[in-house]
Amino acid sequence: MGYISRGKNNIVSHYNAKKRIYTRRKLARQQHLAIVDDDTTKGIASYKSIAAGGNTKWKGITLTEPAQNSWFDDEGYPKTSRDPITGRFVNPWSSEKSNGENGLVNFLRWKFGGLFRTLDAVGIVDGDAHDKNNPADIQKINRNAAVAAAPFLEADNSIHRTIEDTTNSIADDNNESEKIDLTWIGHSTTLISFPGNFTVLTDPHFSKYAGPVRRNEPPSFGVDDLPNVVDCVLISHDHMDHLDYWSICELIDKSKVKFWVAPLGIKSWLMDKAGVPPEHIIELEWWEAVRLSKDSLSSSPEIEGLVRAFDKSSERASDELHRNISEKNSLMITCAPAQHWCSRTPFDRNRRLWCSYAVHATPASSENTGFPPHTHSFYFAGDTGLPPEFPLHHMVGDRLGPFDLAAIPIGAYEPNWFMRESHCNPAEAVKIHQAVRAKRSVAVHFDTFDLADEPREEPPKLLLDEVDRVNKEILNMAVEVVAVADEVGISAELEAVESGLASDVIVRSAEDSHATTEKLVKLLPPLVDFAVIKQGQSISSAATRIEQP
Ligand SMILES: [Zn+2]
User: Fold this and answer.
1) Does residue 6 have a pLDDT over 50?
2) Which of the chain's ends, N or C, has fewer CB atoms near its CB within 10 Å?
3) How far is ligand 1, taken at its centre, from the CA of residue 238, in Å?
């Protein structure tokens, strides 16, 4: 009699007694890892792995960089942490590379050839030697600097439509949208509308330059095209291409934003530099969440509460957050980790935190009491590298996923030796899509600014190739699983007939085999849905979640 077992390392074994064939197939399967112990003197942390489905298996992985126990919670998830010597924020799983000391030398190494070209762009040098005492030269320097700093205040006039036309997403009280709509304005700037009539803007950048880098083309929409009041802006980190002074000033001047959500350290910059009123800023650390709610679809949101959702010792428990949740339209924004860094000047490296965001919209009509509320969910990956060993994005998916829609960066990855710590490449973006359990993702952070060495058109091409490759692999796995299960079914039937068993036993064994096949196919990862759209285009979440009765 044949049998199938799923043993160690997700090997599917099948022994066909009739044919005396033993087949083994490896199934890719997500594993969740959690810290259990560490030894700071050796800089090694060991982890236990918890297989999906609650079967705990113990397994060790080693952090190759110094780690402190306090940087991880009891379950092994990374907490907002600072390097004890520099006092700067770190990626706890990659502490040396993010302790705030490294970076400049590598940057110069990468940019050595292009350094003067870069300085030229901001008007510091222009090929000719400047005479600092010559008024004409000084004027030239000032003028170049002014041109470099001048923001794009005009949107591309060739686009004669508003974002409302594009997304058709701003629901009125009678017609509540049942999906998430995202418009890619450019780079990491997206406008998203959620059921419950919430609008969210990510990393707003409408300017001509990001630091010294000139925008390839004007943004597809300007500040004037945005809905009258965007409920919430999400800032992922303090880099010139994500936290843009001019764009924030314009948004403030035109009273376009209700709340600004940012990771630790950015609140004071928003207040002091950009003049954002403090009561409109919500500063979060990793795994902390804020809940905004509206009495009606047309009203303005209010802050209902902050929560340390995953901190078991916290008094701000998630239960409290979800009290009366079904009575109002709510939007839960959870700050989540990312592997990145930040700097605005040479002296403030990693003084401000970086993050990704999970956003969960819960319309008033739906019953939803868990945390996070899995009604309509969106993930903004911010800027992030994919840690090769540490299961960072699995952890995000584990706690906050799955997501109906995700915006994941795919550009600025060459040269790999320099960029891989801070930016994922297209293949890694697909891994992040799978790890956070996004049902559909959309590519951002490419095409707008040439931040790295790869050609502008390369990231989407590599992404689509990778999606194709991964999906073929998943389909092949499915074919193999079905073939193995079929073999089992047939041999079971043959044996039953040969040993003279009653026909109902045969039927039952065929049913068992069918059920086994289904079970195995369910273990396979879903096909990857990762879209590439043009700047100015919109996309919706894959499917409306059907509420359980
Ligand atoms: Zn960045």
Assistant:
1) no
2) C
3) 7
Strand order in the sheet with 198-202: 281-284, 257-263, 230-234, 198-202, 189-194, 181-186, 538-540
Q: How far is the CA of 143 from the centre of ligand 1 (A)?
A: 28
SS3 call for 430: helix
* 299-323 per-position pLDDT tens digit: 888 888 787 666 655 544 444 445 4
**Domain assignment of residue 121, yes or no:** yes
Residue 278 CA to ligand 1 center (angstroms) comes to 24
Rounded Cα–Cα distance for residues 165 and 41 (Å): 59
- Give the chain's domain count: 1
Ligand 1 center from residue 272 Cα (angstroms): 21
pLDDT (tens digit, 9 = 90+) per residue, 19-72?
554 444 443 333 333 333 444 333 333 343 333 333 333 344 556 677 777 888
Q: Is the distance from CB of 36 to CB of 48 less than 8 angstroms?
A: yes
Spacing, Cα 446 to ligand 1 middle (Å): 12
CA atoms of 46 and 448, how far apart (whole Å): 41
Six-digit token string for 202: 């990510």
Angle at Cα 182 formed by Cα 176 and Cα 188, nearest 5°? Answer: 150
Query: Is pLDDT above 50 for 10?
Result: no
- Rounded to two decimals, what is the model's pTM? 0.77
Quote the ligand 1 centre to 339 CA distance (angstroms).
10
pLDDT of residue 171: 37
Q: What is the pLDDT of residue 509?
A: 67
> Is residue 171 domain-resident?
no
Task: List, in order, residues 6 or more apart from 463 with CB less than 8 Å away.
Answer: 410, 426, 429, 430, 443, 530, 532
How far does the centroid of ligand 1 lie from the alpha carbon of residue 408, in Å?
A: 13
Alpha-carbon distances, residue 201 vs 99, 118, 188, 260 (angstroms) = 30, 30, 10, 10
> Collapsing DSSP states into helix, strand and coil, what is residue 274?
coil
Task: With respect to residue 531, please indicate whether it lies within any of the assigned structural domains.
Answer: no
Hey, is 89 helix, strand or coil? strand
Ligand 1 centre distance from Cα of residue 240 (Å): 8
Residue 331 and residue 451: Cα distance in Å, rounded?
A: 33
The helix (H) or strand (E) run that includes residue 432 is helix 426-435
213-214 and 209-210 as β-strands: parallel, antiparallel, unpaired?
Answer: antiparallel
From ligand 1's centre to the CA of 68, what distance in Å? Answer: 25
**CA 344 to ligand 1 center in whole angstroms:** 10
Instruction: Domain of residue 116: give its range.
Output: 104-146
Q: Give the per-residue SS3 of 492-549.
A: HHHHHHHCCCCHHHHHHHHHHHHHHHHHHHHHCCCCCCEECCCCCCEEECCCCCCCCC
